[in-house]
Amino acid sequence: MQRASRIGGRLAHGGVLLVPVRVKGNDFEFLVDTGSAYTAIALPTARYLRTVPQATPGVRIAPAHGPAVQVPTARLDTLSVAGHMFDNVTVLVLSLPAEMQIDGLLGMDVLGRFRITLEPDTATLVLRLPRAS
Amino acid sequence: MTIAAARRKFAGEWVAMHVTRANRADVPVAGQVVAHAVDRSALHQMARSFRADHPDARVFIFLAGDPIPEGLAVSLATR
Questions:
Q1: Do A48 and B79 touch (CB under 8 A)?
Q2: Is residue B73 domain-resident?
Q3: What is the predicted ipTM?
C-alpha cells in the first residue's frame, strides 16, 4: 500500500469535493465532510445496498443549522477509500434534501485515520498513513 | 469508455458503469455503461439486476451532472 494516495474527485456546486468510496462492490461519490464526525449514506443508497437502517440506538446529531436530531445507523461490512479497507463500519443513514443528489458523506471517523490534505484546485483528496503505522 | 466520456454522454442522468480500469489510487477511470436513467431509483433497479448476474463486478454509480443544484449551498455537520 502506498503511503500517500491521491484521490482525484470532482468539485460540485459551491466548491465541495466529491470522491469515490467503495461499498459492497459498488463505488459511489461521497462528499468529503470534515465537519462531520460520522460517515453517512443517503437513504436511497441504503435501499440500493439493501442495508437496513437501525433506529435504535441511532445517533444524536447536531446539524449545521437547527436542533439536534436522532438518526438511524447501519453497519457496512466493508467500506474502502483508495484501496484502504475498513470492516464493520457504522454509518449514519440520512434523509438528505431531495435536490441534493449525493450518495453519502465521508466523515472524520474515516478521514481521521489519515493525515489528510484537500487540494480544491485539483479536486483531489490526499490520504497519508500516519507515521506510526 | 472513460468515466469522463460517460459523464458527457449521459449528462444529467444517473449512470452505472462496470469498472474495467482504475488508477493507482483505486479510483475508477473506465468501464462499460450497464445502465443509465434520469430517475435514481430506476437506475438502482437496473444496477441491482446487473449485479445479480455479475456478483463480482465492480459497479460505479454516479450522477453525470452536478449533484448540488445552483442556489443550494451545502452546510453539513454531524456530531
A1: no
A2: no
A3: 0.90
